[in-house]
């Protein structure tokens, strides 16, 4: 049995043995310690390889036996170094797998806690009561909307009056206002200059001016007298 196998099988703490196996945290700590130990062993082997190369160069052909022995030791060190490289790769893979497993375990554990908490919260909830509560909320929302609509609508003050009667009264007021304006209109009076002594046809401009019908009843009598005089003079 190798030292590494003994390490994993029998190197656990008493507390870990009592629980039936190490915890993920303990196993990860042991793997990191092993990686650190192997890394130091790598540094040691690399130093020994460099030293044996120096010895082989030093003896060279002058002392072939010593040079060859140094090269043999270098080969053994290189073999051990390759073995450690493979071991470190295996340990790194195992550590990453254990870390992922530990993470997944913690995630599942927390999800289980959350599920239990939800179950505990929902334990005292009755679906029928929830349905009744939601129905009450909906009804109260409808009542609030009706109240809001009633407040926002225009008040119907004055709707009892007939709109046709109001329009007729408005037209009557407009007609009275128009008649008042017509009465206030003053037409120019008949020219006070004397007419020509020679009978003849009046100029068109004067005759046209005099034939305008006054709109005011107040001037009607005076205009009729003037027209009679003009007719007598023209004949």
TrEMBL record:
GO terms for biological process: late endosome to vacuole transport via multivesicular body sorting pathway; protein transport; vesicle budding from membrane. The lineage of its organism: Eukaryota, Metazoa, Chordata, Craniata, Vertebrata. Coiled coil: none annotated. It is a peripheral membrane protein. Keywords: Coiled coil, Cytoplasm, Endosome, Membrane, Protein transport, Transport. Residues 219-229 have a biased composition (Basic and acidic residues). It is found in: Cytoplasm, Cytosol; Late endosome membrane. Signal peptide: none annotated. One of its GO terms (cellular component) is multivesicular body. It comes from the Eukaryota. PANTHER family: CHARGED MULTIVESICULAR BODY PROTEIN, CHARGED MULTIVESICULAR BODY PROTEIN 4C. Gene3D superfamilies: 6.10.250.1710, ESAT-6-like. The keyword Membrane applies. Belongs to the SNF7 family. The keyword Transmembrane helix does not apply. Residues 1-25, 216-235 are annotated as: Disordered. Its main location: cytoplasm. The gene is Chmp4c. This is CHM4C protein. InterPro entries: Snf7_fam. It comes from Dasyornis broadbenti (rufous bristle-bird). Residues 9-21 have a biased composition (Gly residues).
């Amino acid at each position: 049995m190798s030292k590494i196998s003994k390490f994993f099988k029998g190197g656990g703490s008493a507390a870990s043995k009592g629980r039936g196996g190490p915890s993920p945290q303990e196993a990860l700590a042991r793997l990191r310690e092993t990686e650190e130990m192997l890394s130091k062993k790598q540094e040691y082997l690399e130093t020994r390889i460099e030293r044996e190369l120096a010895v082989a160069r030093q003896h060279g052909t002058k002392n072939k036996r010593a040079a060859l022995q140094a090269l043999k030791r270098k080969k053994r060190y290189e073999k051990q170094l390759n073995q450690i490289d493979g071991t470190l790769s295996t340990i790194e893979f195992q550590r990453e797998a254990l870390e992922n497993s530990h993470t997944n375990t913690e995630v599942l554990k927390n999800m289980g806690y959350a599920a239990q908490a939800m179950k505990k919260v929902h334990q005292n909830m009755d679906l029928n009561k929830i349905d009744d509560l939601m129905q009450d909320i909906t009804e109260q929302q409808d009542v609030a909307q009706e109240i809001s609509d009633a407040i926002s609508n225009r008040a119907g003050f004055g709707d009892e009056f007939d709109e046709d009667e109001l329009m007729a009264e408005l037209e009557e007021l407009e007609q009275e206002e128009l008649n008042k304006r017509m009465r206030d209109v003053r037409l120019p009076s008949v020219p006070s200059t004397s007419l020509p002594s020679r009978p003849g046809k009046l100029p068109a401009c004067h005759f046209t001016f005099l034939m305008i019908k006054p709109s005011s009843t107040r001037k009607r009598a005076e205009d009729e007298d003037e027209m009679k005089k003009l007719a007598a003079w023209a004949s």
